[in-house]
Amino acid sequence: MMDLIARLANRHARLMLLGAVAVAAAAAFFGAPVVTSLTGGNPDFVTPGSGSARAEERIGAATGIRSDGGIIALVDTGAPVDDLRTRDEVAKVADLMSGDPVFADVLTYYQAQDRALVSRDGTRTIVVGRLKDGAGDHYQDTVDRLSAALDGDPSVRLGGSEVVGNQVVSTVQNDLERAELLAFPVLFVLSLWIFRSLVASALPLVIGGLNVVLTLLGLRLVDRLVAPVSIFSLNLVTALGLGLAIDYSLLIVSRFRSELAADPDVGRAVEATLRTAGRTILFSSLTVSAAMASLFVFRQRFLYSMAVGGLLVSASALLVALLVLPTMLRLLGRHIDALAPARLRRSLEAPENTDGGWFALARGVMRGAPLVAIGASALLVVLGLPFLKVAFTTVGPASLPAGASSRVVDDTLRADFPADPLESVQVVVATAGAGAGGEGEGGAGDGDVARQRVDALRAGIAALPGAASVAPAAQLDGGTWLLQVTPEEPGLSGRSQALVKDVRALPGPDEVLVGGQTAGYVDLKDSLTGRLPAAALIVLLTSVLVLLLMTGSLVLPLKAVLMNLLTLAATFGILVLVFQWGHGAGLFGADAQNALDATQPVLLFAMVFGLSTDYGVFLLARIKEARDAGADETESVAQGLGRTGRVVTAAAVLFCVALGALATSRIVFIKELGLGTALGVLLDATIVRALLVPSLMRLLGRWNWWAPAPLRWLHERFGLREGGAPPLVVEKS
Predict the structure, then answer these.
(1) Helices (H), 263-300
(2) What angle, 0 to 180 degrees and rounded to 10, lies between the N-to-C axes of helices 709-718 and 517-551?
(3) Per CATH, the architecture of 405-521 is what?
């Protein structure tokens, strides 16, 4: 396959490059609108088919009103609620909501005389606008209209679940633009330092840009034709697209320069580069794609959108690296080092003598292999210990910056109001034998019996630990009743989660569905926990299979899995230190959250595991190449690390800039994603690759390459290699 691509690049370079430019222009034109068309927010984290989702659907079907609490306007004029200024402000807000067709009804203190709508000190009140069920994207339009109408009014702040979603989306869009503006100049300067040439340093960014626009086109097609895609996938696409393009560009360009140094014929250099670095990139892309595809087992839109984005971006990176970059190298030839000072114009592989720094490090590590292996492993374990104390949360107002209006409203309701409407536990009771009319099928008698059962359930809930109060039952339709439960502690707390589970465990003849914010979070956690083993199994098996097909060894893939797990543990431990406990959180513009977002371990497991295996492929490919060329066990490890050390370290640094830019986001769980991925890459590129890999390979010796006979046959039969290619020769120093 690689020989075929090389022939195309050598014979039709100009045509292929023109085709790439045309495809890029079309992808940019048709794909760019996806940046503003995708939506996100609370629906991204709903678990389809769960009890909480069914409760929300039942309430909507019975009443025509969404059960998420609607839009909450916090009115604070500085005067008591009975003051004319406060009354006028409330009337203005209520009129705006009542005049919007998406609102089902509007609730104010003056109408309901409910002290729960007034702060304890009597100086603030809330206006609750409940939304019609089934209005789709019009909810966000309503938030935009209401926000515009109240813009500049210091007495009113908007909150509620739909406002949270709206502000998360707008913040993500703004942060994405800022991250790109920050990352590109830094990446270019670092590329210039690494590549030593203006022409060569521009290649990763050009390839990265092409990768991103192709993936945006793919996202738009999936969003329009297959299933809705979350806006949060854009962050992943941009960062991972740049990161993979940089990795693959570095690997190919460095190998191309090395081949040109050995043979001045550009065509043969392209062929040799694709047979070696191209094959490595193919294996790398397979590992990243498999890791991201594992997220498809999860049901939440947030995670399957990340799977879609990750799969598209890794496939696009492979195609661009193998089809477009070689044609550019064929046309540039030795001009790849143009526009560079003479003192900087040198091969990326240089110095290649066996006394270089990376060679010396590898040999030094192998001389003290037992101590190095124990010390490096112990360090990763110690870094991972805080993860044993991890707590989880979900996306909500606390995920937004401190000044966001929905966060201010949420904080105020928690601190100063008797109850937060968003935190109530909604118990939906579908009474057995009830009909669709105002009474049950058996008439008023059956209705009385149904009410008695619902009242008995209400008494049982009121007696549960964690329940502060239970409102009288409200009959939504002939067969549906609603009990509003106020928890003693804030929503998402352990006690409130236990309350949800206790309500679900109560016996009775009727179907009982528990909804609300806390119930939705309980269902999210249960879904993630239940499906995580399947996702982990997919990642582990595919990683082992790909490395087996590449190396012919069973020991090396298993060792890679173990080291990746250590890297993950250390990464999670540091995230707990920063975002849960607050140590150093200020460096990233965050406060201690007391918990990590529940989806982050799942997403980071796939990303960090895939990327760690990615760098392992780079190193193992060169080790195997040296061993196949006749080097002994120790020397092949030294050759592999020595010849990849500078390249992979440079790739890791650039990748961390691309991914780390996400840590500048004002959305907490995006910060966690950016920092977590960058940490995983750094730990793998330093402690694991420079210390653990050579030390363990020295200890295992020839056992590194062991595999049982059936797996050896599998490698010989199906292992990816270039048939008929000449033996690979290790470059001489």
Answers:
(1) 266-273, 279-293
(2) 80
(3) 2-Layer Sandwich (3.30)
**Which two tokens mark 599?**
């989806």
User: Does pTM surpass 0.90?
Assistant: no
| SS3 state of residue 582 | coil
Is 480 strand, coil or helix?
Answer: strand
What are the backbone angles phi and psi of residue 498, rounded to the nearest 5°?
Answer: -65, -35
Pairing of strands 425-430, 156-159: unpaired
* 3-class secondary-structure state, position 481: strand
10 Å CB burial of residue 499 (0-12, 13-18, 19+) is buried
Which of 138-152, 422-436, 528-542, 585-599 reaches the highest mean pLDDT? 528-542
**pLDDT tens-digit profile of 199-250?**
888 888 888 889 999 999 999 999 999 988 988 888 888 888 888 888 888 8
Classify 425 as helix, strand or coil.
strand
Q: Which helix (H) or strand (E) holds 127?
A: strand 125-131
71 forms bridges with which residues in the sheet? 129
Q: What's the pLDDT score for residue 526?
A: 94
- Across-strand partners of 481? 429, 475
Residues 6 or more apart whose Cβ sits within 8 Å of residue 456: 508
DSSP 9-69: HHHSHHHHHHHHHHHHHHHHHHHTTHHHH-B-SGGGG--TTSHHHHHHHHHHHHHSB-SS-
- H or E, element range at 513: strand 511-515
Helices (H), 320-443: 325-332, 357-367, 369-384, 405-416
What distance in Å separates the CA atoms of residue 300 and residue 305, rounded to the nearest whole number? Answer: 8
Architecture of domain 70-159: 2-Layer Sandwich (3.30)
Q: Please, where are the H alpha helices in 64-132?
A: 84-98, 109-112
pLDDT in tens, 291-339: 999 999 999 999 999 999 999 999 999 999 999 999 999 998 888 877 6
Question: What CA–CA distance (Å, rounded) separates 69 from 325?
Answer: 53
Angle at 470 between CA 464 and CA 476, to 5 degrees: 125
Please choose, from the candidates 327, 390, 349, 337, the residue with its C-alpha nearest in 3D space to the C-alpha of residue 598: 390
Residue limits of CATH 3.30.70.1320 in the chain: 70-159
Q: What is the CA radius of gyration of the chain?
A: 30
Q: Write the pLDDT tens digit of every residue in 563-589.
A: 999 999 999 999 999 999 988 888 887
Residue 530, phi then psi, degrees to nearest 5: -70, -30
What spatial distance separates the first Cα and last Cα of the chain, rounded to whole Å? 30
Distance CA 513, CA 523 (A): 12
Check: CB of residue 694 under 8 Å from CB of residue 365: yes
Amino acid 305 reads S
| Strand 392-393 relative to strand 596-597, pairing | parallel
